[in-house]
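Hi R.,

Here are the chain sequences for the assembly we discussed:
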Amino acid sequence: MRQVSSWGRLNAASHEVVSVNDPAQIACQIARKPHGIAHGNGRSYGDVCLNPDGVLWHTIGLNHFVSFDPSTGRLVCEAGVLLRDIQRLVIPRGWILPVTPGTQLVTVGGAIANDVHGKNHHVLGSFGDHVKRVCLLRTDGQSIECGPQDKADWFAATVGGLGLTGIIVDAEIQLSRVAGPWLDTDTVPYANLDEFFKLADESEADWQHTVSWLDCLSVGGRGLFMRGNPADAGVRPEPKGRKRTMPIVPPVSLVNPLSLRAFNMAYFHLKKWRAGRAIAHYESFFYPLDNLLEWNRMYGPKGFFQYQSVVPRDVGQDATQAMLTEIARAGEGSFLAVLKTFGDRQPVGMLSFPRPGVTLALDFPNKGLRTQNLFERLDVIVGEAGGRIYPAKDARMPRSLFEAGYPNLSEFMKYRDPGISSGLSRRLMGN
Amino acid sequence: MAEHCARLWVQGKSVDLTLVGRDAERIARVAADLRVRSPESEIRVTQSDFLDPSAIRNTVDGIVAQGVVDIVLIAHGSLPDQAECQDNLEVCRDALEINGVSPLLFAEAFAKHMGNANSGTLALIGSVAGDRGRKSNYVYGAAKGMVTRYAQGLQHRFAGTGVKVVLIKPGPTDTPMTSHLKGQGPKMASVEDVAQQITTAIASGQATLYTPGKWAVIMLIIRHLPNFIFNKMEI
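And here is the predicted structure of the full complex:
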């Protein structure tokens, strides 16, 4: 047994960890140790990748490429391969992962199981939109090959399926063409949500990537809107990519009202001062926090929650404003507040999080009941707006909100593997 | 460990690499991965028995016949359960053979060719466990100690020639061999970092490498502890 936490570091429950390293042996291994959940790089925030007092099938050893065709951009790899390793392999050859989340330190299996999205959702959808085939291994030993055309129902259940339909062993991904590692970027400060939505609408047609940092301590909702397009910027010296590590877990959270106010003020004004066009490397534009290793320790020994919701576009501005007001009233603030509009696209998976609308992601240090009470008030706003919460980030949403937000849940349940269970599945699906 | 060294060797370069393994399916999987990482490289696979001297001789002769060998890395091994080794002499013998005898036979077969060519680097993976026997893993330690003594002899034999012999002594490293131990003791080193240090040591022909470096200091102390202290330690 071993203590394992997820990225939010809310608890360290004991798990029996089974390393699955060899595709040929997984069936045997999971038959010997059933009722587990696949666990990749552990970058989801809550309990979707945990199974307290149960079994974890650790898949990070499934880290082999299987094939790559540089003429078509089709890549086949095992599920434990990190997105970072794919990017580093294919970008010099003129290809890139079409969709990546805000960290590249996640596995392919995790990216599919959580159907992750990126800054270009309005153009290219979510990760699952570019997966052409998945090899799924069920705990009864059955192997299912599925894709958007082939056994499409299994595919729709598995993409965004939170690891509950089987173990993803390998996958085939369609990459996109790219000229190089550089992006033409533009940073635009905005003073309030009106300006944000105007910028978002204006930018969708001309910019592939859009995202914004929000100063949630400000009254009106000021922030910085960042947009980017792949650029052919020739050969330039690559950034050094110096890694720093948060060396210890501080006894208390370093994120508190005082530090937050100072940080947000400094960040906003520094960036505002340097606003405008720039050429940026993809790693610093897409994955700004990846060079600060173990940044999650910053929140101290009690860990932190992330609250990410999406609400439909027509009520998006009111709901976002209401949430910001609620957070301000609670005297809370979030260090990483990210606001982004999703494009008008149908989700790939039955339980995929992205849907047309606007998504707000917020980090909060865990202050126990106080934090829970705030979340309950935010839940009401999300629920009334007809929105939903992102399971990959969640450790606490009530079952009712999950059921209301994911209308395909009952259809999904038909595809669940009875030999798989996670902290999240027991909390939100009863088993 | 060897696989991660291979990933570094093929990164951005065109190399000729032959993988030798016991399980054909597993080496095919590693080879496919390396071919994706470096399409311009030539990756060959050879399956061999690891305990039969004539099979080892044939395998090595076959590899050498394909061209001059610059670098050999002998990295196979398996971590036995110490208690089982004490109870079951067959398990004990198997552990000694696969971790001690087998790497030596491979090395000896390559050494002959490298001596004739008067060039090449021969690297062997020993272990910090081979520096001093201790109750928790002395069977494995004995086999790795044999590798250490053997590498010393080989270094003596090839001193002043064009052949370099590198002995690598990793501390506990996060690999499939140790995955069941993860989280039980101090944090294990990442295999990527260890592989990076191994390839650097091989490139420079360093005689002995402790990786991560702190193990050189730790083992210096452990080796010199007097028995009356050492014997009281639960290690």
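Chain A touches chain B through 19 residues (CB under 8 Å). DSSP finds 13 helices and 21 strands in chain A.

Let me know if anything looks off.

Best,
T.
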